[in-house]
Specification:
264 residues; alpha/beta; Nitrilase/N-carbamoyl-D-aminoacid amidohydrolase; six-stranded mixed β-sheet; 16 strands
């Protein structure tokens, strides 16, 4: 299976150019699964709810989702992409999965980072794994990485590959994803942004370094801080082997009856 990511320098508020850039990249190489960054079409640093409302779209009948569905159909590829979602009066930081047969699913970010809490509400749907045939795919978004329960839940639900659209600014995630992949024996594709976004009195610099990590914790594909569309061949079946040694299966050895913790 050919999987990979597109690492972008996103232009805030310019959905047309951001989508056109992604479309151009996707046509350059054949792939089976491509992951795009978080909020790839809109940018990240919103300054008002009215600005967010102007950029957010309904899913799956919004403009961006429709364009990606058509791309997926034309090129026979699965796409995961982050975008701001509007549902009635609520806004979500969401990621979609589309494929050759159309819209598959939408995940709403559970763990909002810093000022995201001013604009979005936390996701209100359970973590889901999507069966696309011989492979099962899970979705998470950016700051979800720091909560190990997310990857573990997706892995326990059968995910071979966890797709991770991101706008990373902290220096820890790329290293942490090695552990997340290893402790769950799954592939993880992190698609990050590059560049600095400046808005009024605020700015963020994104860390780039998008990557694919295999179930053994090896970084098998890596980008630095340039715009990149990178693809690698993987065998998703490797994620079905949960053994660390002949005597240790990471899932069968779990003792969940001892894990319950209540925080008051």
């Amino acid at each position: 299976m050919k999987v990979g990511f597109i690492q972008l320098k996103v232009i805030f508020g310019n959905k047309k150019e951001n989508i056109e850039k992604v479309t151009e990249y996707i046509h350059q190489k054949e792939a089976d699964l491509i992951v795009l960054p978080e909020l790839f079409n809109s940018g990240y640093l919103f300054s008002s709810h009215s600005e967010l409302a102007a950029l957010a779209e309904s899913i799956p009948d919004g403009q961006t989702t429709k364009i990606l569905i058509q791309l997926a159909r034309d090129l026979k590829v699965y796409l995961v992409a982050g975008l701001p979602e509007r549902e009635r009066n609520h806004f979500y930081n969401s990621a979609i999965l589309v494929g050759p047969h159309g819209f598959i699913g939408c995940y709403r970010k559970l763990h909002l980072f810093n000022t995201e809490k001013k604009w979005f509400v936390p996701g209100n749907r359970p973590l889901e794994v999507y069966d696309i045939g011989s492979v099962k795919i899970g979705l998470m978004i950016c700051f979800d990485w720091i909560f190990p329960e997310v990857c573990r839940t997706l892995a326990l639900k059968g995910a071979h590959i966890i797709c991770h659209p991101s706008n990373l600014v902290l220096p820890y995630c790329q290293s942490a994803m090695i552990t997340r992949a290893l402790e769950n024996r799954v592939f993880i594709i992190t698609a990050n942004r590059i560049g600095t976004e400046r808005r009024k009195n605020d700015q963020l610099t994104f860390t780039g370094n998008s990557q694919v990590v295999d179930p053994g914790g090896e970084v098998v594909l890596y980008a630095t801080n340039n715009e990149k569309y990178e693809i690698i061949d993987i065998d998703p079946v490797a994620a079905e082997n949960k053994k660390m040694t002949e005597q240790n299966d990471l899932f069968l050895d779990r003792q969940p009856e001892f894990y319950e913790i209540s925080i008051k």
